[in-house]
Amino acid sequence: MYRNLQECIIDLEKNGHLVRIKEEVDPNLEMAAIHLKVYDANGPALLFENVKGSKYPAVSNLFGSVERSKFIFRKTWDSVQSVIALRNDPMKALKSPHKQVRNALSALAALPLKKNGLPATHREIQISDLPLIHHWPMDGGAFVTLPQVYTEDPENPGIMNSNLGMYRVQLSGNEYELNKEVGIHYQIHRGIGIHQEKARRKGEPLKVSIFIGGPPSHTLSAVMPLPEGLSEMTFAGLLAGRRFRYSYVDGYCVSHDADFVITGDIHPGETKPEGPFGDHLGYYSLTHEFPLMKIHKVYAKENAIWPFTVVGRPPQEDTSFGDLIHELTGDAVKSEVPGVKEVHAVDAAGVHPLLFAIGSERYTPYQQVKQPAELLTIANRILGTGQLSLAKYLFITAEDEIPLDTHKEKEFLMYILERMDFHRDIHFQTNTTIDTLDYSGTGLNTGSKVVFAAYGEKKRELCEQVPKELAQLDGFHNAKLIMPGVVAVESGPFVDEKKTAEEMKKLSVSIQAKGAIEQCPLLIVCDDSDFFTASMSNFLWATFTRSNPSHDIHGVNSRYEHKHWGCDNVIIDARIKPHHAPPLVPDKEVEANIERFFTKDAVLHGVVK
User: Fold this and answer.
1) In a 3-state reduction of DSSP, which class is residue 529?
2) SS3 for 144?
3) What are the tens digits of pLDDT across the range 525-535?
4) Cis link prior to 57 (omega < 30° from 0)?
5) 543 alpha-carbon distance from chain centroid
6) Comparing C-alpha atoms, which of 385, 403, 51 is closest to residue 394?
7) What is the pTM of this model?
8) HSE-up of 481 (CA within 13 Å, CB side)?
9) Cα 127 to the center of its chain, rounded Å
10) How far apart are CA 119 and CA 113, in angstroms?
11) What pLDDT digit, counting tens, does each position of 384-423 carry?
């Protein structure tokens, strides 16, 4: 396998997976725009050899497809899957002991290898020497988008008690003093936060090392949700087929394999404004106070290459990360959440806003009437587990006689809508935590959740065209079918909650006056029905990123019974609200400028069909 990023690039180029761009490219928006266009066309990895303002080349789209990622890890893929499977299910060792001994030896051989001093290949540089890539027009500055942020437990230091995470790093802009300070943005439920809190309690700074580049396995390790007892550093060696090599320099961990290393300290209570940043929900994350890291030293190895990606409305390169992780971890969620059979974080909806899940239903097999029972217990477990706890919407059911697949999103949602009792099976959690990047809630990290549970016999047939009762509604227009059982209706722009309450009551009364429309259980109030109905992806993205369940779910004939809310038909207000972050919109001038790379005889001609 690869000892460094350069060997990976040579291998990809040799096998037709990478294209070199020799012409000078501006890191201010141009590089990102080229990447986005090539990724969207399912194109190759890109090596930018001539980055304006920096002597270092940059590479992107390495993980642009699962096929390319599996090609990169082809020599170690099977053994890594086996080790993770053993961690998930230790009883497997009893079933095939000889195979598991080999797996254990593989893991042992992957333990980090400590060296002495700074490698001879590394030299000290400054932040201003790096490719300072500005990704989206409203970004607050240049960011590192594929960092490996390394910290150790202040109470129990050492590499086996470390955390390696991918937390974005702002290199320039805002109030940061170039070459002296950077910002580190991390969301809740992240390992670095535990280390920072321990350092704060001790009244001492947290030492941080940011690795960029190195073997691709090191990058993937920073985003892997690993089983208990398997460290990111061991996993990095396991996937690389080569031990992670490191040393301590001035008390900071330095990766000998990374292309770049930034070392520094986060001091207790010190923050600066970080952002905006065009993020993976398809909107900007706005400017907020986040930890300030004071730079100690920055290193680059000989022939260093700067890896980067661009995030935005899914799918993007991080979608491939998610698919790769799912293939590697397999059934890990089954061992982590008892009773669950499958959980799918819907990428089209920005991952965290929407989960589809299949659980078991074994609590009351003696009852003739089937209804959610164990499913509600499982739902609470899901919403209390790691990154899954950031979800806003959870649709959950149990297999009965019909096999289900949460990745068949339209069919799965139809199955739920056909079986739900909307008076009984909607369960809210209010004033709770949601994704840091989600601005649909009531504040940073703050919003609500809802569980839609369904189990039992089919209760309704879903409409396959717009019911006549929805064709003409006072104050609402352009009713269009999104999918069976789901209709979008346009309204005027969102004004405020008081006005919305009046509008939704008016809609409910209008529908009730025309009679029940049980075959259409879900109505989406939106700004543009044509957009919502253009694709399933548009519907999933706009509906679940633009709504806060406690505030934006309404109902036809809604009522409370013993503090439980129910209705005849669910209404989700998915209009854009004033407090939402702006969506990501490319710069038209930059889009026009990069066309020179795709014209006849240009290096990327033919990549985009």
Assistant:
1) helix
2) strand
3) 999 999 999 99
4) no
5) 17
6) 385
7) 0.92
8) 12
9) 27
10) 14
11) 988 888 899 999 999 877 889 999 999 999 999 999 999 9
